[in-house]
Design brief:
about 220 residues; globular; 9 helices; mainly alpha
Length: about 220
């Protein structure tokens, strides 16, 4: 995605995050429509099972995704991109946990819940790795990666709601925040690397200049 597209996406996502945060700020209970999802997904018999799903989709799957991305980055000479975008995903999680949650102060069972750290980690990592490897992947690979990333994020969102850890709006806020931070950082990175000439281009230009000078002499 080009820097302009990333910038527009970031602005829209961050603005939507702010609006949603203002809507739920200092709330102490789910909205009525959220109760339906909590009752359906989180009956007492299923809560522990959903919590196990959250644990599985968290660190184990996230570690595997990053490891695979690093391997692809090394093989296709995009390792630096993977590192930068991984840092952006980490920044999204830190922002969620240490800035947004304390500011919004939405609680559920006396715990700060907006946004969900688990969903933020998954959504930010999925998007970051997809953007990092996009330029070195084929069309089918990009589509498959996008589909897997969306599925991973949706399943984690359902799982944290089913485990009664978060509400649907918490999950939506996590996705919006993740998109906003990763694409904002991505726009800066793509703009900076796009302006910097590659080593190959510099060498070709130097050789061409030398040949012209020799021919003139």
């Amino acid at each position: 995605m080009r820097p302009a597209g990333l910038t527009i996406t970031a602005l829209i996502s961050l603005l939507a995050t702010v609006v949603l945060a203002l809507l739920v700020a200092h709330g102490h209970s789910p909205y009525r429509f959220e109760d339906d999802a909590l009752d359906w997904l989180g009956p007492p018999s299923a809560v522990s099972a959903w919590a196990d799903v959250v644990d599985l989709l968290g660190i184990p799957v996230l570690s595997a995704v990053v490891a695979v991305s690093v391997c692809i980055g090394l093989l296709r000479k995009a390792f630096s991109r993977v590192v930068v975008y991984a840092a952006l995903a980490a920044a999204a999680l830190l922002t969620s946990e240490h800035l947004v949650k304390p500011l919004v102060q939405r609680t559920y069972d006396a715990e700060l819940t907006f946004p969900s750290g688990s969903v933020t980690a998954v959504a930010a990592t999925a998007l970051a790795m997809w953007l990092a490897l996009g330029p070195v992947l084929g069309t089918r690979e990009r589509r498959l990666g996008l589909l897997l990333g969306i599925s991973w994020t949706l399943l984690m969102s359902v799982a944290v709601v089913g485990a009664l850890w978060h509400t649907p709006l918490d999950c939506l806020g996590s996705v919006l925040l993740s998109i906003g931070i990763v694409t904002a950082g991505g726009a800066l990175f793509e703009w900076a690397t796009g302006r910097r000439p590659s080593v190959t281009a510099v060498r070709v230009g130097t050789r061409t200049g030398r040949r012209r000078s020799t021919g003139s002499a």
